Amino acid sequence: MKGIDIVYNFDKDNDRKNSTSYKWTFEIEKDEIKKGLYPMTVADMEFDVSDSIKKSILKRVERGVFGYEALSENYYNAVKNRLKLKHNLDIENSDIIENTNAIVSLSIALQAFSDIGDEVIIHSPGYMNFFTTTQLLDRKILESPLTVIDDKYEIDFEQMESIVTPKTKILIFCNPQNPTGNVWSLEDVTKICEFAKRHNILIISDELHHDFVFNGVKHIMTENISRKIGSKCITLISPGKSFNVSGCKTSCAIITDEKIRNKFVETKEKLRFPSAHIFAESIILGAYSEEGEKWQNAVKEYIFENKKIFINFVKEKLPKIKIRKTDATYLLWVDFSELKLSDEELEKLLKEKCLIKVSDGKAFGSFYSQCRRFNIAIQREKLFEILDRIYNVFEKENLN
Ligand SMILES: Cc1ncc(COP(=O)(O)O)c(C=O)c1O
Known about the structure:
- By secondary structure, the protein is α/β, with parallel strands linked by helices.
- It contains 14 helices and 14 strands.
- It folds into two domains: 3-50 and 291-396, Aspartate Aminotransferase, domain 1; 54-289, 3-Layer(aba) Sandwich (Aspartate Aminotransferase, domain 2), CATH 3.40.640.
- It has a seven-stranded mixed β-sheet with strand order 2-10-9-8-7-3-4, sandwiched between helices.
- Residues 43, 101-103, 127, 174, 178, 206, 208-209, 238, 240-241, 246, 251 line the site of pyridoxal-5'-phosphate (PLP).
- Pyridoxal-5'-phosphate binds at residues 43, 101-103, 127, 174, 178, 206, 208-209, 238, 240-241, 246, 251.
């Protein structure tokens, strides 16, 4: 490894079909893979992680002792410094609560700050686990569909005002947004905080994709605005998505309000969530390092190119397929409604004819059975092969 001269090979096929990858084994049958079905579902990348993460984990492995773990100040300093550097956010180490998955933090927050039957606002299309987690806890979902204006998804603040009631306790805000890849503007984030303050609603701001923003767009951390406006906010971040370590189960909640933090921690303890995973600190130190940063910049460049290729291909060759403005994530939200197929016909077209498995829009809200989420963090060669496949099927079926 030569430090600055590291060359990343994102074209390398990692043969995940012969691994224990959830996407490649649990979500898809072996027979389907044999037929050539390619999964573009679960939000992880087909690429190797940064060498700095591997080295950091190996160093911990070499210690050879795997008893219960406590995080050192190094962990907290790394998270704090990262947020200061990237987003000019000032926090204390004590504001950081490490947890396993981000969705576990979401579940803890929902249980701590709402009761059964209380209402939770979720924008749609929205990440499926926001809906599932809220539903499983018997909270009522108030869906707030994004509207499309000038080919871009926008928050419908008027609609939000019209659905809110005294039972509305929480707003799940996602920035950058999964699945649309929208990055909310300063004005949007300000309006969200004002709305939350006006109605005494807690914002759970999921910012897992904050590292993965393109096109020179600036990510605004809700916490930075919320503290000016005086709204209440819990921020969720994780190295999972943007360093491709989601299987390592470490994320954190940032909570600067002492009362909210204490209640969150108390609920976490009541629910008996464990102390940090043995590799949590190694992963953060490996990711938030100079070498980790270089890897991330390189992977972002590769994925940005993938996005451009996909979007331009669709624009030029498959104009009935719509992809709205997207500035972040390695996900693409694709609208097939202009094909005027039934939901069943669309599913058959994609899965059986184009041989791609993508995330069904139905999981992202009430109105999206004609949309699909594509994960394009895949080898370039595979991307071209898939686009060709789609094109050939569409041509044969007279759909372009
Ligand atoms: C916006 C967002 N939040 C949360 C998650 C899930 O994170 P975790 O695996 O840490 O629960 C994802 C995964 O794709 C995501 O995109």
